[in-house]
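Researcher: Please generate the 3D structure of the following complex. Treat every line as part of one assembly.
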Amino acid sequence: MPYLNVVEVESALAVAANAPNNAIAQLITLPNNTWENRTCHALKIAHGAGAGRVGVYFLGGLHSREWGSCDILIALIEAVENAYLNNKGITLGSKSFTAAQVQSIVDTLDLFIFPQSNPDGRNWSMTQEAMWRKNRRPAPAGDTNTACVGVDLNRNFDMLWNYPKYFDPKAPIQNSTDPCDHDVYIGPAAFSEPETKNVKWLLDQNPNIHFFVDLHSYGELLMYTWGDAVDQTTTPGMNFLNPAYDGKRGMKGSGAYKEYLPSLDKSLVVSLATRMKAAVKAVRGTSYKVQQDFALYPTAGTSDDYASSRAFANSALAKVYGFTIEWGKEFQPPYAEMQNIMQEISAALLDFCLGVIAAPPPAAATAAKEAVAAHD
Ligand SMILES: [Zn+2]
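Model: Done. Output below.
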């Protein structure tokens, strides 16, 4: 069985929203068609309604060559629907979730799952150039080099997007302002791309979303914010909004700049990431590593930092805790191995949901208040 192609991911989403699955699932049409005029869909899974339901947002497919992210999220959707509607549990290798646990996830949370956020890029990677990473924004006029097509969508979000202004010129950041960079061109403006606008739109439309997990490969890592500098919990004024630190971010080691993450936020994200690590390990013994995004390399304009930054930049917006998973050890593992990884990451995401349900809401509320106070 091969990876799902672009059409198959969309048809799986349609089936996931049809009877009998429509008892708990609803298809969401994203408003911005891609450069090649594809329409994207997400799925909301929830049973029940009412104020106080917490939204959890799982995203996949921003990077074209990381094929398995779409397959993971479709498999997760199918497992949850099958288990819930048949009053069964879910077994993933040696890790099991009871029927009651699956029910508590669907009955308590609003799951927003957007498996294929960059269908143009996925199609190009699957049919033309396997290692393609960006979307398919047309090249600037006159640029005929094939690398001049596309934007790195996970550098196009509005969080320190204009990195030459914000980062130390010596910082080892792997972003580029060159449209012909094969991999990491940040785009002509933050949110210039229909695909990143769609990711943002789901956050804007659903202010009850407080948790965001973006799937990538590879590296066997479970990561939490921030990506621009080492986290610190003691100096609220040293943060990505403060222009006094422009030109100083992104340095490892003795770098003076560190990014503020309130201590309650930090303990919550570390505990959820650690929970995911245990769930992955329970499937077949694989050890993923929990770490801050920045430990990989300095980044700017990424999805999880953007999601996390929203409430800091605008206190009217909902507090979101952002994560990035780097699954596996290669971009396109043989499908038999990918199926094992699908089980591992499905286990991680289901256990993440149970952790969200178990997290004491007062902690999240206090953390939000603390953050607002720090930036008002
Ligand atoms: Zn990626």
